[in-house]
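Renewal narrative, Specific Aim 1. Our central claim is that a sequence can be written position by position from structural information alone. The example that follows is taken directly from our test logs and has not been curated for this report. It begins with the structure tokens describing the chain, in the order in which they were read.
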């Protein structure tokens, strides 16, 4: 359907071993894009890379902990070395923390969330900038969350990290627009492994969350989220920057039923 939309383009996607990152990688690859799969999970990262190659895409794996600045910068350099350029950058990697009340969250938890939500993206964007600026073309897509935009309970550190990334993205969009670089935000809703684990732990809250979604379901990483990311990564989105797209079946309109009783 979208064959060739990303022909000649190279994309770096963090956290692409599984979940939404893998879904976006598949969608980009099917549109003719080359993909650098960046993840700290070597086994799943290699498997996703093989999957992309099996559909005829150029794909490479780079093992990396995005919370370590030298590793993040090395991933951007590897994209240019191995794929010839960095045209599209997707900051997607995330590892969940504890769901607890705000007053029980430690400074260390906040630091970890800031590292993976904000700093990893800041470092990758700043490393990609000289390349995108030189070619007067770039697409940055940062994955944020309804948790932050709606102030969901139990995840204050994550909410803060993602909202910091949203405002950083808008600042970059403003400052880098003259260079042909567009930077946008997706707040997704998708049934990935994290949600499926959560569903096992708290089935009632998960069921309420699905039932409260106006479309009655959580999205598919490739066909629901990946398609919107593909549009943002394409030439068609060249006049669109600094925006937040809630790709969640309408769950942001009246707020979703993520409202766990945290107790005292
Ligand atoms: N799934 C949802 O409904 C949902 C909702 C709101 C926001 N998001 C956001 O979308 C993005 C993807 O979510 P997902 O559900 O697909 O996550 P996921 O847990 O399924 O996948 C995350 C990936 O990131 C990798 N990763 C984690 N820490 C890393 C690190 N330090 N360095 C390198 N790789 C690392 C993991 O190995 C994994 O492959 C995240 O930014 C998340 O905050 C997801």
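The sequence written for that structure reads:
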């Amino acid at each position: 359907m979208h064959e060739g939309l990303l022909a000649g383009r190279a994309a770096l996607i963090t956290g692409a071993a599984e979940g939404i990152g893998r879904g976006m990688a598949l969608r980009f690859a099917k549109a003719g894009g080359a993909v650098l799969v960046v993840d700290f999970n070597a086994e799943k990262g290699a498997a996703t890379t093989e999957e992309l190659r099996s559909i005829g895409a150029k794909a490479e794996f780079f093992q990396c902990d995005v919370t370590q600045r030298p590793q993040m910068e090395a991933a951007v350099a590897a994209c240019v070395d191995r794929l010839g350029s960095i045209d599209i950058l997707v900051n997607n990697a995330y590892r969940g923390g504890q769901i607890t009340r705000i007053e029980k969250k430690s400074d260390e938890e906040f630091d970890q969330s800031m590292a993976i939500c904000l700093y990893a993206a800041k470092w990758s964007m700043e490393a990609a900038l000289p390349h995108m600026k030189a070619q007067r073309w770039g697409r940055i897509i940062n994955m944020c969350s309804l948790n932050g935009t709606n102030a969901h309970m139990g995840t204050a550190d994550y909410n803060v990290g993602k909202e910091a990334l949203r405002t950083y993205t808008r600042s970059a969009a403003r400052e880098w627009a003259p260079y042909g670089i567009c930077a946008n935000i997706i707040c997704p809703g998708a049934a990935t492994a994290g949600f499926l684990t959560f569903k096992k732990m708290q089935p009632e809250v998960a069921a309420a969350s699905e039932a409260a979604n106006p479309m009655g379901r959580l999205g598919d990483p490739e066909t629901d989220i990946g398609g919107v990311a593909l549009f943002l990564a394409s030439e068609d989105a060249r006049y669109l920057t600094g925006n937040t797209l809630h790709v969640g079946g309408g769950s942001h309109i009246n707020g979703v039923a993520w409202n766990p009783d945290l107790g005292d």
